[in-house]
Amino acid sequence: MILHIDMDAFFASVEQRDNSELKNRPVVICGSSPRAVVSTASYEARQFGIHSAMPLFQARQRCRNLVVVPVNMEKYARVSRQIMAVISRFSPLVEPVSIDEAYADVTGCRTLFGPPEAIAMQIKQHILTDLSLTCSIGIAPVKFLAKIASDMHKPDGLTHISKEQMPAVLKDLPIEKISGVGTRAMKQMGVLNIRTLGDVQRFDADFLSRKLGKFGARLFELSWGIDTSRVETRSLRKSISSETTLAADTADFLEAKDILLAHARRVGRDLRKKDLVCQNVAIKITFSDFTRITRSRKIDAPVCSGEAIFHVALSLFEQVPLKKKIRLLGVGVSHLQSADIPVQMPLIPPAGHRIKKQWETVDRAVDQIYEKFGRDMVTPAVLKPMTAKPLAKGGKMTQSMKVLIFGKVQGVFFRMETLKAAQKTGVTGYVRNRADGSVEAVFQGTPDQVAQMEKWCHTGAPASRVDRVVTEDMPSAPDFRAFEIRY
Ligand code: DCP
Ligand code: MG
Questions:
Q1: pTM for the whole structure
Q2: Whole-angstrom Cα distance, residue 163 to residue 356?
Q3: Nearest ligand, CA of residue 43?
Q4: Which domains does the chain have, with CATH numbers?
């Protein structure tokens, strides 16, 4: 028998537990940007129709007294480890699947702890008394049904689907309850008039495979209650990803590229921290109208450097026609394996192999600096964070502007001349060449100074031909002390 344990409104319950003022109130846990989305909502907030992934502004519209609490991931990770420790007291076969859920195979634990319901009740009791939190547990002969069962009587539920009850439950089970059903599969099943697993039973395996691919074959098995997946104790994570909702929707390819690089580096760092390598890279884009696409690619040899991940992510990104503005961008990796597993190298190393290895060495060195001195000591020049700074001394208004200059602007010369002009004007910031041949400059100073520099960009240095100048006000002022040339 398999147990699936899932915490109730996890992040919110932890915060309500730790702050008595939040008890019985509609609470959402949310990032801090103005466009943040809800991570989770307390059950009180859910009564207003508020749910995970809902933009905060919408949640506020639904409930005027909503309490917004910032995410404290470290705390939730700590509590998560405590929960997993409780479950592990009852079975050696525990598979944590996310921060707040785990499977436990309790087949061989009857003599020690009693039948599955008794074990589930003890786990619930310990989580309540030791951690002051509630969870919901599903018990079933197979994994996928245990997960469905844990969701049936939330919060604080305990649902047992016995072998005898399985056929009846399967028959009426709506297919959207099965994890892994994407919108495309849903559409195709709609065409076939499939709404429940009972409907799936009307078709044979070949037909479903033809119509729905690999997923069709799995669906066929599930419809008859067959799920051969086991509880995997090795807590190797299946995927690692990093994504952000942008501060403002963008259609700027270069900006998107920088964001992809930042995510790729973060994912690479996570991989190396866990001594893992990946062989599949994916990107996720949500557009301004909330439509979402994902693209992924398997790569020949496992990698763990941010640069290698970025390379694949960028080539995936370049194939996506950008007809709408981007709202969210993310990079993820999967097909993970331990970095220690020896990899068969081809006799002739593939092109770029040496460079790939060099990047891994650079990344590992940077990891060590991070560990020792904190996150922002070393950052690729293109990703230098633009941290908000108070107004300049004396309370003078400062303005920051990013300028992109396209044309035959003759890099070195243009940069030197920009430096001189900027020093003369007294602005701070930087100028640098971009990979596409354009020049990027960021100026910070009084609005007058910035306007002067912007004008200067149009005329440019003598002998340079400026075709197009794109300016953009920057929301936060960068921490510049002088004006510099960046490479
Ligand atoms: N989470 C998140 N963003 C999402 C979904 C979830 O950050 N889009 C986080 C917050 C949740 C936690 O993961 O607290 C666990 O996710 P669940 O789907 O299990 O949701 P909850 O535990 O919050 O609620 P439920 O009682 O429905 O399980
Ligand atoms: Mg949960």
A1: 0.58
A2: 52
A3: 1
A4: 6-74 (3.40.1170.60), 167-223 (1.10.150.20), 239-341+354-381 (3.30.1490.100), 396-486 (3.30.70.100)
